[in-house]
Every structure is written in structure tokens, then in C-alpha cells.
Amino acid sequence: MDSGGRPSLGQFILLGTSSVVTAVLYSVYRQKAQVAQELKGAKRIHLGEDLKNILSEAPGKCVPYAVIEGAVRSVKETLNSQFVENCKGVIQRLTLQEHRMVWNRTTHLWNDYSKIIHQRTNTVPFDLVPHEDGVAVAVRVLKPLDAQDLGLETVYEKFHPSIQSFTDVIGHYISGERPKGIQETEEMLKVGATLTGVGELVLDSSSVRLQPPKQGMQYYLSSQDFDSLLQRQESSVRLWKVLTLVFGFATCAVLFFILRKHYLQRQERQRLRQMEKEFQEREAQLLSRAKPEDRESLKSACVVCLSSFKSCVFLECGHVCSCTECYRALPEPKRCPVCRQEIVRVVPLYNS
């Protein structure tokens, strides 16, 4: 903080940055808390014979946010794994990911860097059916790729390291990029896998559909059970809450530090003005009591000892108010006896 008591640019930047980070964290926390609250309010429906009766009695034959759990069953055809025999599913995702090392000129370290160079997702229509045999009910799952936490299982994963010659190694060190290889991954939603769906449940004539909710709520197709899914969301909410509180306290601490500095600086200025006023009153009293022939010498007297002549110029504030002996006797850090500003350089009025 400068001599005027105003916050410095660095303090303004620190306060502004911490305030922005706190606001962003609070926004994410509110969003996560809303998602967790909506999940808590979702209606859990058993996938059984009475499913259609429950939906037919619901307003509009629809449950806006429902939780249903069942096994995956393909409607017509299935997708076969390209790498694993007898592995069938309804969703297949093939990914090629490039891995390389990149030289960081700031830290002087090699950092891992990955980039997806190709990804393809195949789907076929599928239903959720009860685990029990003999129950003739199914829920058609619509738009599964729009769901959060899509419960795909990694069925194949292989890393193909890059083959480099000596010339390539030298070139990579010069360019600052060193390829490591290509990772090939296949993920599938297998037939028969247990899936928890959270979305809008609709009865359409004789079929039941699970689709993304229309009120902006999250659509889930997770391999976890609903309790685990809810617990994970609540853990995420607690994490963002803690981060928000930490940065909020940091922002309050920075603001308190700035206000405290401003208050102390204001108190110091008031004290200096009071001291200057007292010096002036004391000097005026001495001048009024002194004889006419002594007044000129009193005006030139040191304000500390009032006996020696003023012989020091304080360059920071420009005051000429102290003799050399009194200046040397001032405690460290030395300050002007009049304005109390910290003194770095002093010039004598004359050489002793």
C-alpha cells in the first residue's frame, strides 16, 4: 500500500482474481448441488409387471424423472467386438489415442500429452428388461449417447509403441516433441449387463420408453446402482463446496488485509497530523515567550532537542527540522520527526 493509503495494483489483482475464482467455484457448486437434489427427488420404479399400470395412472402417462434398473437386451441385431471373440453388445466405441512427450521450456521437464486422433461409436436399439425370467416387460432406451456416465466396459486395450531411429531421436530432442505410441481401445455396453437409467419414463400405446428429461435435468445410463450414483454426486458436491469455502475465506482474508492496511494508514496519517499540529503549537508558544532577539534562533532550532540548530534535510519529505546529533539518535527505521515518513537519505545543510 502506498503513502496515500490506497491499495496497490498487485493487491487489486489478487482480490479480483480470488473473487472471480470464488464466484466460478460457487457457480459449479450450485450446479452440482442442483443435480444431486434432482437425483434425490427422482422416483424409483421397479421394472416389473405393474410398470405399465403405474405409468397409465401417472399424469400424461409419464414420470418426468424416474429411476429404473434392468439388464441390457438387444432389440434385433447385436454388435460384435473386433478384438474379443463371443463378445456382443449394443454400444461399441473404438478409440485411437496418440501419446507423446512434450518439452516444457519453463520447467525444463518432459510432460505427457495425449490426443484422440480417431473415435467411432456404433449403436443398435436395445431395451432394459428385468433380471427375473418370465416377466414380459421391457423399456426401450432412446438416445443413449446423450446420457451422462454411459456405462461402457473396456473389453480391449493395447498400446503400440512408436519405433524410432537414432536420427528420429535427435530430431525429436531438437523439436521438443517425442512420440511414445498409439493406444487402441474398444469399449462396449455388453448384452446382459446391468444398467441404471435415470430419465423420463413414458408409456406410448403399449411400449415404455426411457428418454432424456425435458426439464433440463441430467440423463444417466450408468453401470452403477442408483445409491452409488447418488453417493458419487454428493461427494462431488462436498468437494466443490470445500473448494468454494477455501477460496471464499482466502478472498475475505485478502479484503480484510487491504481494509486493515487502509485503516492503519489512516490512523497513522491522523497521528502525524496531530504531531505536526503539536509541534507547530509548541513552536508558536516558544516564539511568543521568547525575546525578540531570540526568535530567529528558535525558528532555526531542532524540533527534537530545541537547543541545536537544524542541520539536516530529509530528502524523502523535504523537511529541515533536525540537527545531526538528534538524527543519529533516531531509532531504526529512521523517520522524519514532523511527518513520520521513513527516511532513506539525509543531506547536511553545511559541513561540520
TrEMBL record:
<dbReference type="GO" id="GO:0031647">
    <property type="term" value="P:regulation of protein stability"/>
</dbReference>
<protein>
    <recommendedName>
        <fullName>Mitochondrial ubiquitin ligase activator of NFKB 1</fullName>
        <ecNumber>2.3.2.27</ecNumber>
    </recommendedName>
</protein>
<dbReference type="GO" id="GO:0005741">
    <property type="term" value="C:mitochondrial outer membrane"/>
</dbReference>
<dbReference type="InterPro" id="IPR022170">
    <property type="entry name" value="MUL1-like"/>
</dbReference>
<keyword id="KW-0812">Transmembrane</keyword>
<dbReference type="Pfam" id="PF12483">
    <property type="entry name" value="GIDE"/>
</dbReference>
<keyword id="KW-1133">Transmembrane helix</keyword>
<keyword id="KW-0862">Zinc</keyword>
<feature type="transmembrane region" description="Helical">
    <location>
        <begin position="12"/>
        <end position="29"/>
    </location>
</feature>
<dbReference type="InterPro" id="IPR001841">
    <property type="entry name" value="Znf_RING"/>
</dbReference>
<dbReference type="Pfam" id="PF13920">
    <property type="entry name" value="zf-C3HC4_3"/>
</dbReference>
<feature type="transmembrane region" description="Helical">
    <location>
        <begin position="239"/>
        <end position="259"/>
    </location>
</feature>
<dbReference type="GO" id="GO:0016567">
    <property type="term" value="P:protein ubiquitination"/>
</dbReference>
<keyword id="KW-0436">Ligase</keyword>
<keyword id="KW-0479">Metal-binding</keyword>
<dbReference type="GO" id="GO:0022603">
    <property type="term" value="P:regulation of anatomical structure morphogenesis"/>
</dbReference>
<keyword id="KW-1000">Mitochondrion outer membrane</keyword>
<keyword id="KW-0833">Ubl conjugation pathway</keyword>
<feature type="domain" description="RING-type">
    <location>
        <begin position="302"/>
        <end position="340"/>
    </location>
</feature>
<comment type="pathway">
    <text>Protein modification; protein ubiquitination.</text>
</comment>
<dbReference type="GO" id="GO:0008270">
    <property type="term" value="F:zinc ion binding"/>
</dbReference>
<dbReference type="GO" id="GO:0061630">
    <property type="term" value="F:ubiquitin protein ligase activity"/>
</dbReference>
<dbReference type="GO" id="GO:0016874">
    <property type="term" value="F:ligase activity"/>
</dbReference>
<keyword id="KW-0496">Mitochondrion</keyword>
<keyword id="KW-0863">Zinc-finger</keyword>
<comment type="subunit">
    <text>Homooligomer. Interacts with MAP3K7/TAK1. Interacts with UBC9. Interacts with and sumoylates DNM1L. Interacts with MAVS. Interacts with TP53 (via N-terminus); the interaction leads to ubiquitination and proteasomal degradation of TP53.</text>
</comment>
<keyword id="KW-0808">Transferase</keyword>
<dbReference type="InterPro" id="IPR013083">
    <property type="entry name" value="Znf_RING/FYVE/PHD"/>
</dbReference>
<dbReference type="InterPro" id="IPR051652">
    <property type="entry name" value="MDM2_MDM4_MUL1"/>
</dbReference>
<dbReference type="GO" id="GO:0051094">
    <property type="term" value="P:positive regulation of developmental process"/>
</dbReference>
<dbReference type="GO" id="GO:0009893">
    <property type="term" value="P:positive regulation of metabolic process"/>
</dbReference>
<keyword id="KW-0472">Membrane</keyword>
